[in-house]
């Protein structure tokens, strides 16, 4: 069981680093808002985070 927890932690940290590298500080803010919204069961907070990430991804197309 500890191996699964270690692998998931490595995956999460790697994903956060990728988002920060690709989308900068606003990408991390969006990811943080989604995470806080899910943990707090707040649809508004997670929706704001999703919109921030969607705007970051769609920005080159606009």
Please, could you describe this protein's structure?
This protein has 62 residues and is mainly α. Helix content is 89%, strand content 0%. It has two helices and no strands. Helix 1 crosses helix 2. The longest helix is centred in the middle third of the chain and has 39 residues. The chain is flat and about 40 Å long. The model has no long low-confidence stretch (mean pLDDT 85).
The share of residues in helices is: over 70%
Largest sheet: none
Give a count of the beta strands, DSSP E runs of length 2 or more.
0
- The N- and C-terminal alpha carbons lie at a distance of 45 Å
Rg: 13 Å
N-to-C SSE string, H for helix and E for strand: HH
Quick overview:
The protein is mainly alpha-helical and 62 residues long.
List the helices and strands and how they pair.
Layout (H helix, E strand, L loop, with lengths): L1 H39 L2 H16 L4
Question: Any descriptors?
Answer:
single chain; 62 residues; mainly alpha; 2 helices; flat
């Amino acid at each position: 069981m500890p191996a699964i927890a270690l692998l998931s932690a490595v995956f999460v940290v790697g994903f956060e680093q990728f988002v920060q590298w690709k989308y900068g500080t606003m990408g991390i803010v969006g990811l943080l808002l989604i995470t806080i919204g899910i943990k707090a069961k707040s649809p508004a907070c997670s929706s704001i985070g999703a919109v921030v990430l969607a705007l970051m991804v769609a920005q080159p197309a606009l």
